[in-house]
Write the structure tokens for this entry.
Amino acid sequence: MILALLCANLRLSHVENILDVAYKSIGRIITLDTSEKETFESLIEIIKIRKKERLLSAGQVCKYEYMVLKGCIRSFYCDEDTNEFTTMFAIEGWWTGDLGSFYRQMPSEYYLVAMEETYLLRLSYQRMEQLYEKIPKFERYFRILLQNRLIAVESFQNTLQALDAEENYKLFRQNYPDLEKRVPLKYIASYLGITPTYLSRLRKRKS
Amino acid sequence: MILALLCANLRLSHVENILDVAYKSIGRIITLDTSEKETFESLIEIIKIRKKERLLSAGQVCKYEYMVLKGCIRSFYCDEDTNEFTTMFAIEGWWTGDLGSFYRQMPSEYYLVAMEETYLLRLSYQRMEQLYEKIPKFERYFRILLQNRLIAVESFQNTLQALDAEENYKLFRQNYPDLEKRVPLKYIASYLGITPTYLSRLRKRKS
DNA sequence: CGTCTATTTGAATGTACTCAAAAGCGGTGG
DNA sequence: CCACCGCTTTTGAGTACATTCAAATAGACG
């Protein structure tokens, strides 16, 4: 079994454990039987990357969509002046990648970097199309997933616009209670669209 | 034929003409044969609303997803202090509604208002599920549509954060050249996340 | 323990806002 | 067809939230 081999390479003793995250996440939207899970597992690959390693750099075509099984991936892009803008922190059970680059097979403008040692499941463009073909339910799965993500992105965008920096920071801490400990301040600042300097001042104000 | 009757009510002489917008838009993603188009037309309804009329108000459940056939729909939400935040202008060929409210059947936080006399095609939740059932291709259609929309929303969000008000205004004019003439300044301001006062000053600076 | 990077702090600045008032514009009724 | 009313846009003056730049301090990693 390919998956077992991959996991052996990664020195993971319990294959089931690491994929449980994925099935739990997928299971919220569609139900997979044993044979479908086998098909799924024949199409995915599991990889591990170290802290600070890159999954994707601007200029490359994004060859895979990834689900984080363990760890955390930060997505960001840069403007002309090397300012970084963090767009997303993907943690356990979240999909990440660059949809635009992936589906259009065009160079990406994003960077994907591991904030910690991270285990991921990945699907190439071809494998993704095979997945849709072999298990059409996955069209539905990703349709619903994208719906939810769009709703979340729009809602985030809205609060970002409607509230000031201090309230956005409060909201961030509520929505991602554990993330603040896992992620350096400057990246949270760039996610909230403020300077690290100012976030530091906000933090002081609170305590 | 139901559709013909509806169109008769709307005093539209050419049914094909008004739906051409829809088929052109859908045709970019999936191909429909004649019988599929018939099925589609048996599920949709066509409505017309006057300028300033509402499709949806905050507190209501969004019962339909709409495609604009002719006209323009503005979506916005309000904060506690009655400030309006415009999230989208839907023009010919665009879908609009409130995805979150529609798919979860929960009260919406958005308002949808016609900027002009507007013709729309609409699908109820039930009809939408029937559409997925009868023509599974539509799972794919909406999956790809949502992908594209997510990419667009994220990209908009990114430029909004990365650029200052003046450059965002420039970009808006490039991306929606005709819209500026169709839509009052104050709504463009609330779309760009600035005050009408400030947008007025920006406009003066340019010319 | 030293080096490199991240965070904190201070001072000055700017972008965009608030509030208030004036001007412009469009629609409606006399 | 003009006059008036209400809503939108413009303009002015003062203000605030958040930034920049620089320097000091704290933390992390080898």
Q: What stands out?
A: Residues 184-186, 196-197, 199-201, 203-204 of chain B lie near DNA strand D (CB under 10 Å from a C1'). The CA atoms of residues 10 and 48 of chain B lie 7 Å apart. Chain B touches chain A through 29 residues (CB under 8 Å). The mean pLDDT of chain B is 91.
